Amino acid sequence: MQARRRNFKLAVAARMRSRTSQTHHQRKRLKSVNRRMKRLRAEMKEISEEQKEIKVGQKKVREKFEAIELECEELRKETILITQQTANTQIRLALMFQILKARQNQELDKATILTHALRGLIERGNQQRKL
Questions:
Q1: What residue spans define the domains of the chain?
Q2: What is the C-alpha to C-alpha distance for residues 9 and 17, in angstroms, rounded to an integer?
Q3: Distance of alpha carbon 7 from alpha carbon 14, whole angstroms
Q4: What is the pLDDT of residues 15-67, one digit of tens each?
Q5: Burial tier of 79 (Cβ tally within 10 Å: 0-12, 13-18, 19+)
Q6: DSSP secondary structure letter of residue 93
Q7: What rounded mean pLDDT belongs to the chain?
Q8: What is the per-residue DSSP string for 54-77?
Q9: What pLDDT is stored for residue 2 in this prediction?
Q10: Has residue 90 got a pLDDT over 80?
């Protein structure tokens, strides 16, 4: 009977060690999972911050791009205006040259007509600038 008791005690002790061992493994596994979760949370937080920085950067780039587009549009308008002014100046110079040539050749009627044309052109230019 003592042998039975002894075997029983040994069996109980073995079960206890087995349970302790299982509990120890479960704790180790739980710690490992917790560490992994903590690391993943930290990585997710870092990724989230990086995404916010990217969004801010994209917004800045978009604003700069829009500003550049506006500036390009203004430059196009200025270029068109300068081209028109240059054309008007060339027309005026051509009329003035023809007026001088007509006066030099004693063609006063032609000079008068060209002078009126030049005055009309200048008046139209002044009216357009007022608008």
A1: 2-130
A2: 12
A3: 10
A4: 666 666 677 778 888 889 999 999 999 999 999 999 999 999 999 999 999 99
A5: exposed
A6: H
A7: 89
A8: HHHHHHHHHHHHHHHHHHHHHHHH
A9: 66
A10: yes
Residue holding tokens 């390009």? Answer: 72
Cα 30 to Cα 27, 36, 38: the distances in Å are 5, 10, 12
Pairwise CA distance, residues 26 & 38, whole Å: 18
Which token pair is 61?
């780039």
| DSSP secondary structure string for all residues of 35-59 | HHHHHHHHHHHHHHHHHHHHHHHHH
User: Are 99 and 119 spatial neighbours (Cβ–Cβ below 8 Å)?
Assistant: no
Question: How far, in Å, are 40, 59, 61, 66 from residue 73 at the CA level?
Answer: 49, 21, 18, 11
Give the amino acid at 77: K
- The reported pTM is 0.56
